[in-house]
Design goal:
- Pfam families: WD40.
- The chain has about 475 residues and is an alpha+beta fold.
- The protein has two domains: about 150 residues, no CATH class; about 325 residues, 7 Propeller (Methylamine Dehydrogenase, Chain H), CATH 2.130.10.10.
- Helices cover about 20% and strands about 35% of the residues.
- It contains seven helices and 30 strands.
- The strands form eight sheets. The protein has a four-stranded antiparallel beta sheet with strand order 1-28-27-26, with no helix packed on it.
- Helix 1 crosses helix 2.
- It is elongated and about 75 Å long.
């Protein structure tokens, strides 16, 4: 097993800092960049043995060149997005690793971001399975239904088609069935909830309503089974109640899931309505609600020295993602659990966060794509196909330093973010996480390449990467 030279690790950290916002993206001056590359090359030559050192030199020099291109692309992302994408693609073609792929994906996704016009201070978002319908709860403009459509430029356009007007106070918790036909909204002040029939989303109908009970400061979280016949609600004072919505005009309170008497910060239900995961008092709890009148507490999702906040479940209930302040070393992140045997959950992996506590999480229906967010304005996308080794595929950057909530379509192709000042945002993430280079190369970009003339014209006096001295150009798509 070979280790990555320290200089390469340093270069990788510089790219990741630019991606995460830990440092302002800045391309090194010619002298410092050259020194970095020399350091990288020297690390390879000093390894051991001439043949080994030469192979190490070749590999290390390519890493240096790739990270140099990726870093320059990150710097140009806002001002010259097309050039930034080309540089990112060139980096991936030279060194296809997690760092270069994520850097290219970040560039592509920045320009797939769309503002949901008409939103201001959004507390919650929900989205249908196919990504065609969304709901936002705005503390200024109320609860609105949006029709989502994909545009030619790969963005997602949101059109305001109707509103859900019932609660007098703020609506801080919403849920939507995968088919987009049933919605649940909850008020922040009185513990009231409303059930909505969205069969015709342009003409929503209030089907029924209920009150959770003696609630202080209202309902914090709600969730629905896929068929819309079972609901669960959590409150500020820790009550978690299960409801039968078979007759939506007459909801029936079934039972209470008795846990910690503190704010419910996370709530999720499997598609079949048989498994619930709740988070309160810093602890995550797995419930079997197959017998809805007699819920059974099965297990806790706790890690030493951690607190639990946001919760998400895959459709089959086998994968759970919980956020909070986690890890024994007080690092921040989210934890992934295998609930194949719900009474004996198995911790699979940690999804680290570089800047903040993670308290918003979302999962695609198949559990293979995830979102995590918190303070710092960063929402990260993750590839969970290998559940023991999550891979960060991209960072969704909004203008705010705080995300109130996130939502992901079941297909994992459309996502939303709620912010407290700038409103809601949508992204089309189709294809970007799985293979950002192929996404870049689809269409007219296929024949783009970076040659020395292009470099000299557009790279503001920065020298051609020393490690690429023998190459006349870089054609990222030629290898596909």
């Amino acid at each position: 097993m070979t280790s990555t030279p320290r200089a390469c690790v340093f270069a990788e950290e510089k790219v990741m800092d630019a991606e995460s916002g830990d440092a302002k993206p800045r391309f090194p001056r010619k002298s410092s960049r050259a020194a970095l590359v020399v350091l990288v090359l020297t690390a390879g030559l000093l390894a051991a043995g001439t043949a080994v050192a030469f192979r190490r030199y070749e590999n290390t020099s390519r890493i240096a060149a790739a990270y140099e291109l990726a870093l320059r692309g990150a710097e140009l992302r806002e001002s010259r997005p097309e050039d930034a994408a080309l540089l990112g693609a060139a980096a991936v073609s030279i060194r296809p690793d997690e760092v270069t792929r994520a850097s290219l994906a970040d560039t592509l996704l920045l320009h797939r971001r769309s503002v949901v016009f008409g939103t201001v201070n959004v507390d919650s978002v929900a989205i249908s399975a196919d990504g065609s319908l969304a709901i936002t709860s705005d503390l200024h403009t109320g609860v609105k239904i949006w029709e989502l459509s994909s545009e030619m430029d790969d963005s997602v356009e949101a059109s305001d088609i109707s509103a859900l007007k019932d609660h007098e106070g703020w609506v801080t918790a919403i849920a939507l069935t995968p088919d987009g036909k049933v919605a649940l909204t909850a008020g922040s002040d009185d513990g009231s909830m409303s059930v909505w029939d969205l069969t015709h989303p342009r003409r929503p109908v209030k089907a029924g309503g209920m009150v959770v009970g003696d609630v202080v400061n209202g309902v914090t979280k709600v969730a629905l089974a896929a068929d819309g016949r079972t609901a669960v609600a959590g409150t500020e004072n820790g009550d978690v109640t299960l409801w039968d919505l078979t007759r939506k005009s007459h909801p029936v309170r079934l039972s209470e899931l008795r846990g910690a008497k503190s704010r419910v910060g996370g709530l999720a239900m499997s598609a079949d309505g048989r498994t619930v995961v709740s988070a309160a008092g810093g602890s995550g709890v797995v419930w079997d609600v197959t017998d809805r009148a007699r819920p059974v507490r099965l297990a806790t999702l706790d890690r030493p020295g951690s607190t639990v906040e946001g919760v998400a479940l895959s459709a089959d209930g086998r994968t759970a993602l919980v956020g909070g302040l986690t890890d024994v070393d007080r690092r921040n992140g989210a934890h992934m659990w295998d609930l194949s045997t719900p009474a004996r959950p198995v911790h699979l992996a940690t999804l680290p966060a570089r800047m903040s506590e993670v308290y918003n999480v979302a999962l695609a229906a198949d559990g293979k794509t995830a979102m995590t967010s918190g303070f710092g304005g960063l929402t990260m996308l993750w590839d969970l196909r290998d559940r023991s080794r999550p891979v960060r595929t991209a960072t969704l950057k909004g203008p705010a330093t705080l995300a109130n909530g996130v939502a992901m379509a079941a297909s994992g192709t459309t996502v939303m973010m709620a912010t407290p000042r700038w409103g809601a945002f949508t992204w089309n993430i189709a294809g970007v996480g799985e293979d950002p280079l192929r996404t870049f190369c689809d269409g007219p970009r296929y024949f783009q390449h970076v040659d020395r003339q292009w470099w000299d014209r557009w790279m503001d006096g920065h020298a051609w990467p020393p490690a690429l001295d023998e190459a006349e150009d870089i054609a990222p798509c030629s290898q596909l």
